[in-house]
Design brief:
Strands 1-2-3-4 form a 4-stranded mixed sheet. It has helices at residues 2-15, 38-53, 132-150, 158-171, 188-196, 201-214, 222-234, 236-242, 247-263, 273-282, 287-291, and strands at 21-28, 67-79, 82-94, 101-115. The protein is an alpha+beta fold and 295 residues long. The relative contact order is 0.09. Helix content is 47%, strand content 17%. The protein folds into 2 domains: 12-196, no CATH class; 202-291, no CATH class.
Length: 295
């Protein structure tokens, strides 16, 4: 009996925490001309295991609650254990009452050089630098978690963003690009700085209002959902007036521009002439999409 209780408690402890992500990690080495080298296949397998089997939070996620995401690592060059690469990270979340998944995070990280020895141990330490490979992937995991949480609750991603900031701070010692202010205006440093800054507070409000108040309500009232999305996007103009052409706006529209075009180019008609004007002003790089919106 005592042995049975021990085994039961042991099983319970293993099930009390579950992995948060359903992530596909791909390593594309075509640009090296040696894409069939075994080290790339081993790297891909290890990264899939690392991202999907690490417990990133102390919360319990049911299998259907895991966040769907993709990471594509494009290796441009490698020499022994030194890799020059970029990484494209995308995540999505389901829309209530539908089979549709909406894109939430879409980030092209061009500063991704790292060292990797085949079969090396991969362990995430929340408070200590292990390697640039681990830091970059972990940083984006917490960005995925934070932005996903923000779509379900106002400022729901606070703890995840703070962990991403901690990773940024201790990774600066590695002298890899992307972690410091001087690494340019399109870096991980600028991304998390914008997210946590009150200067861009409307961004996080829009994540919630756009998804939870707008998209999730469309199954019940399509027109009211569209109006809520339109109103949420209009608040970005306030942020843009305060700090024009911010990086965080570019990150937002990299994920949402195509969806916004689709939402307002079909279904019940709403008066969105002001919205189109706002979108053209704050996201001119997507002007061709805004011209396709019917109103």
């Amino acid at each position: 009996m005592r042995k049975f209780i021990f085994l039961f408690l042991l099983a319970l402890s293993f099930n009390s925490f579950s992995q948060e992500l359903n992530c596909s990690v791909k390593v594309n080495a075509q640009l090296t001309g040696n894409e069939n080298v075994q080290v790339f296949k081993t790297l891909e397998r290890q990264l899939n295991e690392f991202v999907n089997n690490t417990s990133w939070t102390n919360k319990s996620f049911k299998p259907q609650e895991r966040i769907n995401c993709n990471m594509v690592i494009n290796v441009n060059d490698y020499n022994n254990d030194v890799f020059t690469a970029t990484i494209q990270v995308q995540s999505s979340r389901p829309v209530f009452g539908s089979t549709y998944s909406t894109p939430v995070y879409n980030y092209n990280d061009k500063d991704f050089d790292f060292q990797y020895l085949e079969f090396q141990n991969m362990v995430f330490n929340p408070n200590q630098f292990e390697s640039n490979l681990i830091s970059v992937l972990s940083f984006h995991v917490y960005m995925i978690l934070g932005m996903d949480a923000d779509t379900f609750a106002p400022r729901g991603g606070d703890d995840y963003y703070k962990q991403a900031q901690t990773i940024l701070q201790y990774s600066q010692q590695g002298n890899f690009k992307g972690w410091k202010l001087e690494d340019g205006q399109q870096s991980r440093f600028v991304l998390i700085d914008n997210i946590l800054s009150e200067t861009y507070k409307e961004f996080r409000s829009v994540l919630y209002d756009y998804h939870r108040v707008g998209l999730d309500a469309m199954h019940n009232d399509n027109k009211e959902g569209k109006l809520a999305i339109s109103q949420s996007l209009s608040t970005l103009l306030t942020m843009n007036n305060r700090r024009p052409n911010s990086y965080i706006l570019r990150v937002f529209f990299d994920a949402k521009a195509e969806e916004i075009e689709d939402i307002f180019s079909g279904g019940p008609t709403v008066n969105i002439s002001d919205l189109v004007s706002t979108l053209t002003r704050i996201a001119p790089m997507h002007a061709s999409k805004w011209r396709n919106i019917n109103f």
